[in-house]
Amino acid sequence: MNFQEAFERVIGHEGGYVNDPLDPGGETKWGISRRAYPGEDIAGMTLDRAMTIYQRDYWGAAGCDAAPDGLRFPLFDMAVNQGVRTAIRALQHAAGVTEDGILGPVTLQ
Questions:
Q1: DSSP labels for the chain?
Q2: What is the Cα–Cα distance from 72 to 59, expressed in whole angstroms?
Q3: Beta bridge partners of 29
Q4: What are phi and psi of 28, to 5 degrees?
Q5: How far apart are the first and last CA of the chain?
Q6: Residue 54 half-sphere exposure, CB side, CA atoms within 13 Å?
Q7: CA angle 22–25–26, rounded 5-degree value
Q8: Nearest CA-CA partner of 57 in 79, 35, 82, 33
Q9: pLDDT tens, the chain, 109 aa long
Q10: Burial of 105 (0-12, 13-18, 19+ CB in 10 A)
Q11: Number of other CB atoms surrounding residue 8 within 10 Å
Q12: Residue 55 burial (10 A CB sphere; 0-12, 13-18, 19+)
C-alpha cells in the first residue's frame, strides 16, 4: 500500500469540519485538530493541506515507506490515532524487539 491509498482510507473515517465544544481536540477538519495544530487554519483546511500534514507527520514520521507492505496501513493508522512513537512501540512489541519508538533496522528485520 502506498501513501495515497492509505490516506484515502484514513480520510474516509476522519470526515469534514467539526467544532464540537465537548470534543477535547476542539475545532477539527479532516482529522486535523486545533489542539494538535494550533497554527493551522482549521476551518479553511483543504484536503491537499491535510494530505501534506498526514504524509509529513504520520506516514513519513512513522517510517511507513520502509515497513513491509502488509504493515504500512496499520502502522500509519495507529500513528494517526495513537501517535507515531506509540505506533512504532506497538510494532516493536509485536516483533519482540526493544521498544524504543524508533523504526530502525532491527525492528524492520
A1: --HHHHHHHHHHHH-S-B--TT-TT-SEETTEETTT-TTS-STT--HHHHHHHHIIIIIIHHTTTTS-HHHHHHHHHHHHHH-HHHHHHHHHHHHTS---S---HHHH-
A2: 8
A3: 32
A4: -140, 140
A5: 19
A6: 29
A7: 60
A8: 79
A9: 999 999 999 998 777 898 988 877 789 999 899 889 999 999 999 999 999 999 999 999 999 999 999 999 999 999 999 999 999 999 999 999 999 999 999 998 8
A10: exposed
A11: 10
A12: middle
Cell of 27: 475545532
Total count of residues recorded for the chain: 109
Q: Which three cell numbers stand for residue 66?
A: 520502509
Return phi, psi of residue 33, to 5°: -100, 155
Cut 0.70: pTM above it: yes
How many CA atoms lie within 13 Å of 1's alpha carbon, on the beta-carbon side?
Answer: 19
